[in-house]
Amino acid sequence: MGTSVQVTPLCGVYNENPLSYLVSIDGFNFLVDCGWNDLFDPSLLEPLSRVASTIDAVLLSHSDTLHLGALPYAMKQLGLSAPVYATEPVHKLGLLTMYDQFLSRKQVSDFDLFTLDDIDSAFQNVIRLTYSQNFHLSGKGEGIVIAPHAAGHMLGSSIWKITKDGEEVIYAVDYNHRKERHLNGTVLQSFVRPAVLITDAYHALYTNQTARQQRDQEFLDTISKHLEVGGNVLLPVDPAGRVLELLLILEQHWLQRAFSFPIYFLTYVSSSTIEYAKSFLEWMSDSVSKSFETSRDNAFLLRHVTLLINKTDLDNAPPGPKVVLASMASLEAGFARDIFVEWANDPRNLVLFTETGQFGTLARMLQSAPPPKFVKVTMSKRIPLAGEELIAYEEEQNRLRREEALRVSLVREEETRPDDNSSELMDIDTKTTNDVVSSLGPAYKDILIDGFVPPSSSLAPMFPFYDNTSEWDDFGEVINPEDYVIKDEDMDRGAMLTGGDVDGRLDEATASLMLDTKPSKVISNELIVTVSCSLVKMDYEGRSDGRSIKSMIAHVSPLKLVLVHAIAEATEHLKQHCLNNICPHVYSPQIEETVDVTSDLCAYKVQLSEKLMSNVIFKKLGDSEVAWVDSEVGKTESDARSLLPIPSAASPHKSVLVGDLKIADFKQFLSSKGVQVEFAGGGALRCGEYVTLRKVGPTGQKGGATGPQQILIEGPLCEDYYKIRDYLYSQFYLL
Q: Does residue 705 carry a pLDDT above 50?
């Protein structure tokens, strides 16, 4: 049998809950994503808690809370201790996302699910990989290779490819096939016929009918219309994910139109987010990278966007219309929630949602149709203690410190208390010593023993003496290197004070907020908010729509397909489509339901014998070399399977064309050869006056049918026909 593969959803199937899945490959357990939502409901993590101790490796695909939000809690409370793998942007931006989440929660509640130290500990030892980097696991995972590939949804977001014995398991969720301002599209289409594809059906029922330019124009026109009548615009956003695309759109539009309306980016980590974005240009789109290479123009040198980390700075800004991008997108906490409550009752203002709010959140409630006229909101804030409360707090802290000091003193006294035999000897010697001291006068009485506990090994009272003998060698005193190692917690604290994490990317104001230990309390009150402002939702989620998802899966054509993360209706819709048109083995498991997607093929490892390879002629095909080999399976002297030359001449084989023809690329090739070419109906390519070329599947279904595809040339046998055929053959390698 092939490589054993089992998939067990822990969260995020048949609903919109965060993503977390257990993928077991030959007994090696991967936790693929470790998400939580903005409600931070611990009950969602109960399935994870039952398997956390068995996890061997964690793969993170995106930097938002839905994909990695539970990582600090799982490592602190659930016993998760496996190594974590992610791209550099997912690691850094994910860390900032969790910082912003914690600080936002801490300002409005006594949040205790995890701390800043827990966040640092969870992200400290993340193993960072680059796109397409093959990382070979060792130990229990010997033979398994993992590699991240571009997903196109967020900066550094990944499709994970897990390979063992030549069989591929692809994990691809929340990908985007469209190229955007700061990101290239996904590379999912580069995978063909993997053993297993795990993907989501989140947008399976959604079809995007709007071109990008038209959508951007509507987006900017909507904002401009409210600014020009004196209104303010609020965009609730995530701290370090899709907000980067929105910032570029606004920056470029303000530059072109020379607008004077201010734009503010308000999160606890806004400065750090942009600093990281400036340094991650190699992870961005070709246009962003090329612009920097040619003119040193960094796309994230934002000239029209002001970065804020405190709402007081926004309140002190000059009056007038403004655009504010603030966290959180769910409006459950953060600056966006406070701003919404302040601006909601002015009909000139606009709240523009760029993504669907998480289920059960205030943002989701406001996106309902029709939107509510009134909403009940609980507003909380943290204030410093004062007066009698502060005095009572300090007295309680002093009492606790005294109790702790007493406890430590008792422990030390217990550790240094002499045994019974030593006590008897000391009593005798103490009497003798006291008699001697008494003869010297009352001023010297008890000076040897008052307030002094003699060592347990001493026969008489004595002052403590420690013989500090050092070891020496030819180079001087022998030192202990551990005495000079800076502890991790000291380094982290020092990094905060100097303005950053280990890379110095955390501004001083945010660091001081993290280190603020002044006594405070949280006060809350309920408000009925009148929603008079405009509420608009536009799609800037950066995910492929239903039609693209179906086309992509058809192109990849997996042997087995596992569907996750979508409401029941979308999951069943995509499942039936794939069963009918793409793949006969489609699974949609429930929470904690394990599906066995082990390949039905038998895989064997064989060696290529030197005698066989000496007669093989390879030919270059792109970055690879290919050759046709006729051989038979035998065994070497070490009893290993090997491919050996066949004893007699091989019979002729049917010609095989190796390569992948893209019709659009072939059209450009023919145009460069002077052939008049244009697209006809149904995806056909009309070449010259008489010849038509089309790409079809084995059943004649156009597009992404399963199995090998065929290129059909239709037309009379004329000079143009043979010329087009020769051009077509030149695009392939003939075996």
A: no
Amino acid residing at 635: K
pLDDT single digits (tens) 626-678: 888 888 888 877 777 888 888 777 777 777 767 667 777 778 888 888 888 88
* β-strands 135-136, 127-129 pairing: unpaired
Distance CA 106, CA 333 (A): 10
- Cβ atoms 11, 45 nearer than 8 A: yes
What radius of gyration do the chain's Cα atoms show?
34
Phi, psi of 430, deg, nearest 5: -65, -40
What CA–CA distance (Å, rounded) separates 126 from 57?
11
Measured CA to CA in angstroms, residue 378 lies from 108, 371, 411, 524 at distances of 10, 19, 47, 7
What integer pLDDT is reported at residue 659 of this predicted model?
A: 67
pLDDT for the residue 616? 80
Answer whether 295's CB lies under 8 Å from 287's CB: no
- C-alpha 191 chain-centroid distance: 21
> How far lies 528's CA from each of 347, 350, 379, 531, in Å?
17, 19, 10, 9
Provide the whole-model pTM.
Answer: 0.76
pLDDT, one tens digit per residue, over 246-284 is 999 999 999 998 899 999 999 999 999 999 999 999 999
Burial pattern 454-493, b for ≥16 Cβ within 10 A else e, equals beeeeeebeeeeeeeeeeeeeeeeeeeeeeeeeeeeeebb
Which domains are delineated in the chain?
A: 5-207+539-596 (3.60.15.10), 212-385+521-537 (3.40.50.10890), 607-645 (no CATH), 657-697+707-734 (no CATH)
